Amino acid sequence: MGLVVQKYGGTSVGTVDRIKAVAERVCASQKRGDRIVVVVSAMAGETNRLFKLASELSEAPNARETDVLVATGEQVSAALLAIRLNSLGFPGASCLAHQLKLATDSNHGRAKIKSVEANRLSSAIKEGKIAVVAGYQGIDERGDITTLGRGASDLTAVALAAALKADLCEIYTDVDGVYTADPNIVPTARKLDRISYDEMLEMAGLGAKVLQLRSVELARRFNVPLVVRSSFGDGVGTWVGQEDATMEDVLVSGVTLDQNQAKVTIGGVEDRPGLAAKIFGPIADAGIIVDMIIQNASADGRTDMTFTVTRDDLKRALDIVKKIGGEIGIAGVRFEDPVAKVSIVGLGMRSHAGVAATMFRVLAEERINIEMIATSEIKVSVVVNSKYGELAMRALHDTFLGGANGAAETP
Ligand code: ADP
Ligand code: ASP
Ligand code: MG
Q1: Residues with CB under 6 A from ligand 2
Q2: What DSSP letter does each residue of 115-184 carry, written as one string?
Q3: Alpha helix locations (H) across 244-299?
Q4: Which pLDDT belongs to residue 187?
Q5: Atom of ligand 2 nearest to the CA of 74
Q6: How far is Cα 172 from Cα 169, in angstroms, rounded to an integer?
Q7: Distance 100 CA to ligand 3 centre (A)
Q8: How far is the CA of 51 from the centre of ligand 2 (A)?
Q9: Which of 38, 80, 86, 175 has its CA 20 to 30 A from that of 378?
């Protein structure tokens, strides 16, 4: 008998029938003797629909009001699931962020969790109730509604699991686990039985949206074991936790694709100390996260600098770069939107030379030009033209993780 936080994503609660199926699963878990806290996302497509409504009324919708709007999606699904649980004779009770006291800062749209008061949930659990928590939302010091960033119902679930010291956090979704690549893009992708927090962090950060990045960070920090499984079946799913000795044996565990990046090139920047700081300081001050940066060797004392940002931040980044460019004197600014970032991730890369070289060879064989490269201990990422993103992903998956015939190459 344990305490389990179960999170159900948008597709899992996307229709009345799906909500009925989720209710059955929750009741079955409770009947088995587990104590359950449920976290739900908005019904599939609902959050996008709400964002779209706002954008039809304003070019730059007010951030506070947008959060009031988009947080409603989770409120609806929490209430619907609680209604169903009650009708089945189980004491389900919806719980919103202000009732939980899921306290955040006031950074609307990407608020950080400051604290979670677990008392209310602990009492509900003691009384045998099933709390159905609305994911994605928080409450700031002023009592205003905030949201935690796209996909962040995963984060709500992990934060509650950590606060309650739950035995397990189950993430129910529309695939039956974490795969070697997005199974919707790479048909030969294989489900992983286990993956380390570190690899999952890299994969989530590089575009595998099966788990939200910050939820994996938090799970690692508080050592919350995660299981990703399908709400449509009974598979065991994928276990995400601390690395163990056997995991090092795997050279590459996953291939990811991020199509949400844009590339900016500043031409003819004077090659002297302080200029990078002049450009990237204001970009950082604006809260824009720059991912990859490269600076070419200089010719005639001038150089090109190229960096990537998410597509959402492109316009603001360009405005800043153009303004600074005017002050420091540059030749011009170019951009490419979108670009594809394709990455391979694996703990085994730490101790293997040649993985990057094999990756470059595979891309060359497909005649795909590499525009940027970045490496870390357990990943290699390249930026390529966005129309070749999926092709690159499949080719790399075939080489490192085996295609249809399952034969994988080691460099
Ligand atoms: P939910 O609404 O349940 O939170 P998401 O859409 O956020 O679901 O995440 C599940 C999706 O993640 C899958 O449908 C799949 O397309 C995508 N995905 C991307 N990379 C992977 C991967 N490596 N393994 C499994 N799914 C992945
Ligand atoms: N509904 C939110 C979103 O679509 C949060 C989530 O689904 O996890 O981003
Ligand atoms: Mg998700």
Answers
A1: 9-10, 41-42, 47, 73, 135-136, 150-154
A2: EE--HHHHHHHHTT-EEEEETTEEE-TTS-EEE--TTTHHHHHHHHHHHTT-SEEEEEESSSS-BSS-TT
A3: 275-285
A4: 94
A5: 1
A6: 10
A7: 21
A8: 11
A9: 175
Ligand 1 centroid to Cα of residue 325, in Å, is 40
State both tokens at 112: 């950080």
Query: Is the sign of the CA dihedral 48, 54, 58, 60 positive or negative?
Result: negative
Closest to 168 in 3D by CA, of 78, 77, 34, 28 = 34
Residue 13: closest CA among 144, 136, 100: 136
Instruction: Give whole-number Cα distances, 158 to 25, 165, 177, 190, in Å.
Output: 20, 10, 17, 25
Q: Average pLDDT, stretch 324-336?
A: 93
Dist CA 61 CA 228 (whole Å)? 34
Question: Which pLDDT score is estimated for 403?
Answer: 59
Angle of helix 355-365 versus helix 389-401 axis, rounded to 10: 130
Atom of ligand 1 nearest to the CA of 178: 24
Question: pLDDT by residue (tens digit) across 10-27?
Answer: 999 999 999 999 999 999
What's the rounded Cα separation, in Å, for the pair 343 and 204?
A: 11
The tokens describing 179, both together, are 């795969």
The alpha carbons of the chain give a radius of gyration, in whole angstroms, of 23
Q: For the chain, how many helices (H) and strands (E)?
A: 13, 18
**Residue range 293-329, pLDDT digits in tens:** 998 877 788 999 999 999 999 999 999 999 999 999 9
Indicate the pTM of the whole model: 0.93
Ion ligand 3, residues whose Cβ is below 5 A away: 9, 151
